[in-house]
Design a protein that fits this description.
Layout: E1 5-9, E2 43-46, E3 54-57, E4 62-66, E5 76-80, H1 83-86, E6 92-99, H2 103-106, E7 110-116, E8 131-135, E9 148-152, E10 160-165, E11 170-179, E12 184-189, E13 192-198, H3 200-203, E14 208-214, E15 222-234, E16 246-247, H4 252-266, E17 271-276, H5 286-293, E18 297-300, H6 307-316, E19 320-324, H7 332-338, E20 346-350, H8 355-367, E21 383-387, H9 392-403, E22 407-411, H10 420-429, E23 434-437, H11 445-455, E24 460-463, H12 468-479, E25 485-490, H13 495-506, E26 511-514, H14 521-529, E27 534-538, H15 546-549
Helix pairs in contact: 4-6, 4-13, 5-8, 5-9, 5-13, 8-10, 9-12, 9-13
Length: 554
């Protein structure tokens, strides 16, 4: 069972006016993509050689001006800084290219939409990726200078294949996206499929988006204009009815394993998080990071790896296992046992001196930041602030942050300010919005004042209620404008929600912490007004009664 292709979705204002429908598309789910940074001001030259000659025009659509006086035989590439971290959950990209009439006299134009991976992309020389581009370059071989669109036809040797002739003086919409059913990268020209490319190893890698322009030395100046930038994603709402009513195991480790099994129905779990099931601090910020990286969360005992967990890992067959927390949380014995999982995955540890330092390592690694506070990458990663002294607010925050493509930042809510290391991490994420989860009893007003002083007040909110259940409802009410499904977890304990929050976040569904056998009025109102038709209970009936799914009032 795999998600099916949906309409292209736009996150930022620049994207909103030009949605590109993919064939067999269904209705789209809300998905805030402005954290990717499709702000034309963020585009900068990358790998230009030898001395530049490519300028980004900062106003309006993304415009690349190619200056022949500084051009060379080497191509010039453009990408947005930081997108290689942010785009890991994205299945494709679409944009409209204006084929300028003036290009007919230039006869040396290449302008393409490239979706690359920062790793070695499946080919022996590492130079392979899904590309669709315009060209009128005479290469002395297959292409004679006639204007055409072509695709990169292999991951191994870089073979170009013509897919359609091009006309000067008109716009074309180019799309590259991953079809999960076939495992193929598919290419579309004006909504019509023109080719595909298959490579299993490439599909799970994080991607970089590059807009390419090329100008040999001595050619005329020209301009490349891209508009209608949009993200292609899958409509996971079509699979909502296939979610079980309850996901449970005989204990917390079995429940996390059962949740990971559901995850495997939707995503390729090339990375898996493993964290202690005996306490919550190290994993509280993990749900949003896990959803961002496409990584299920499994729980382990400190000194031994439960057999049900190892069996699930063998079934998932990940390339990488990330252990969260120090040896005080997950011992070296368990770390070494993870190396024996089927496929001999890479095993790494993300840890810090305490729960807050571990949180910083998780966020830095997941979003590719160094935490020095320099920023200047135009990441625009939304942030939800939650106390690390207790678990309920942070558990609800994970899926809420994931809905926006954002991160959860833990703070000691009893303090009056955030330490410099955490504040620098937030600066590096360059959030376009910050939400504080919980009342001043959870996160003191001094922290809110500090955030407003550093980041301004316009885009900072507090979602709160008189207790953990009301805060959960308030936070989800603020973030989610629609929800086909709602996950419920007990607010009295943490293990079921640690793993469940990652799945809910990856599927872009809210998680609500609730009482054992009933829901409060705000929760009932949220489920009704957001149109949720599916309720998923996390944990056994000893943890949550069926009456919760029936929305029995407390």
């Amino acid at each position: 069972m795999s998600p099916r292709p949906a309409a292209a979705l736009a996150g930022a204002a620049l994207l909103a006016a030009a949605l590109v429908a993919i064939p067999s598309a269904a209705h789209s789910v809300p998905y805030a993509f402005n954290y990717i940074g499709f702000d034309s001001l963020s585009w900068v030259p990358d790998r230009t050689a030898p001395s530049g000659g490519y300028t980004v025009v900062p106003d309006g659509p993304l415009t690349l001006e190619v200056d022949a006086s500084n051009a060379s035989a080497a191509p010039g590439f453009y990408r947005t800084e930081g997108i290689n971290a942010a785009i890991s959950g994205i299945d494709g990209i679409s944009a409209t290219l204006t084929v300028d009439e003036a290009w007919e006299s230039v006869a040396s134009v290449r302008a393409g939409l490239w979706l690359t991976a920062p790793q070695n992309e499946g080919g022996s020389d590492g130079d392979a990726w899904p590309i669709i581009e315009f060209t009128n370059v005479d290469d002395g071989g297959d292409f004679d200078g006639s204007p055409v669109f072509r695709i990169y036809g292999t991951f191994d040797t870089g073979t170009w294949t013509e897919v359609a002739p091009a006309e000067y003086g008109r716009d074309y919409t180019l799309t590259v996206f991953l079809n999960h059913d076939s495992g193929d990268w598919e290419f579309y020209l004006d909504g019509v499929k023109v080719g595909s490319l298959h490579d299993d190893g490439y599909t799970t890698q994080p991607k970089q988006l590059i807009f390419n322009s090329f100008n040999p030395a001595g050619a005329d100046d020209y301009t490349v204009v891209w508009s209608g930038l949009a993200v292609v994603d899958y409509d996971l709402t079509q699979e909502t009815s296939l979610l079980p009513n309850r996901i449970a195991g005989p204990d917390r480790y079995g429940t996390a394993s059962a949740i990971a099994a559901e995850w495997d129905e939707y995503f390729d779990a090339s990375t898996v998080f493993v964290t202690t099931g005996e306490n919550y601090p190290d994993a509280l910020s993990a749900a949003a990071a896990a959803a961002h990286l496409g990584a299920p969360v499994l729980l382990t005992k400190k000194n031994s790896l439960p057999s049900v967990v190892k069996s699930r890992l063998n079934a998932l067959h990940p390339d990488r296992i990330v252990v969260l927390g120090s040896t005080a949380a997950v011992s070296s014995t368990v770390f070494n046992a993870l190396k024996t999982v089927s496929g001999s995955p890479e095993v790494v540890r993300w840890q810090g001196a305490d729960r807050y330092a571990t949180m910083r390592e998780i966020v830095k690694n997941a979003w590719g930041v160094d935490g020095d506070g320099d920023g200047a990458e135009n990441r625009h990663v939304p942030v939800i602030i939650a106390t690390g002294r207790n678990f309920p607010d942070a558990l609800s925050a994970g899926p809420a942050a994931s809905y926006w493509g954002g991160a959860v930042i833990l703070v000691d809510g009893s303090k009056s300010s955030i330490p410099a290391a955490t504040l620098n991490l937030i600066r590096d994420l360059e959030p376009d919005r910050i939400v504080i989860a919980g009342s001043t009893a959870a996160v003191k007003s001094g922290i809110e004042s500090q955030l407003r002083s550093v980041f301004g007040s316009a885009d900072i909110w507090r979602a709160q209620g008189p207790d953990r259940y009301a805060t959960s409802a308030a936070l989800n009410n603020l973030v989610f404008d629609a929800a086909d499904a709602v996950f419920f977890a007990t607010g009295a304990n943490f293990p079921d929600a640690l793993a469940g929050a990652a799945l809910a976040g990856a599927l872009r569904h809210p998680l609500i912490v609730t009482q054992k056998s009933c829901v409060t009025s705000p929760v009932k109102s949220f489920v009704s007004t957001r149109g949720a038709t599916k309720k998923v209970l996390l944990g056994s009936s000893a943890t949550l009664k069926d009456s919760v799914a029936a929305l029995k009032s407390c």
